[in-house]
Amino acid sequence: MAKLYHVPLSPFCRKVRLSLAEKKIECELVEERYWEKEADFLARNPAAKVPVLKIDGRTMAESAAICEYLEELHPEPPLMPRSPEKRYEVRRLVGWFDDKFHNEVTSKLLYERVNKKVMGKGYPDSTNVKSGSKAIKYHLDYMAWLLDHRRWLAGDAMSLADFAAAAHLSSLDYISDVDWNRSDVVKDWYAKIKSRPAFRSILADQIPGFLPPAHYADLDF
Fold it and tell me: Which of 45, 69, 106, 197 is the most exposed place for a label (fewest CB within 10 A)?
């Protein structure tokens, strides 16, 4: 059985978890305090980052590379389209959420409000929190624009781009940092994707010291 070293609220880990679950690949989850940089973990990934996936006798790091490996090895159900142009769009949006959204929103909200406390690094920086709260509005509006023109974020079919976005937003939703009333189309998209069986284990996550909002696991929020 595959083994995933992860942190429950990490959007990068959640993206891999969603891919594994969507493709029905059984996987043992092992929580990893990566910031402690223990020797055993550094041997698995010298970059000291999660996720790390052990599968098929291999140890793999970097969430985007892991997801594409899973796609190539287990192409059904597909999370990447066939045409080069459509695959490009999926990769562009995965990069958007894992880079731009992460730097402007996730790192300013989730990391300040949760990671600092868990890691014992003090209190949230209010400047960063304000910056993240402002930036997420822009990103939700961009998602709304995409979904006004497409069925899913990257096109007519659900893809890895949707999982990347949902991984970040579900982590932020756990700490009530997403204004779902800002866009009905984004809210409907999220309700649709969180109703998938692949999302069940993520919605069951519990972080000690942090209670999710009442709507977090509600499929009809």
Answer: 197
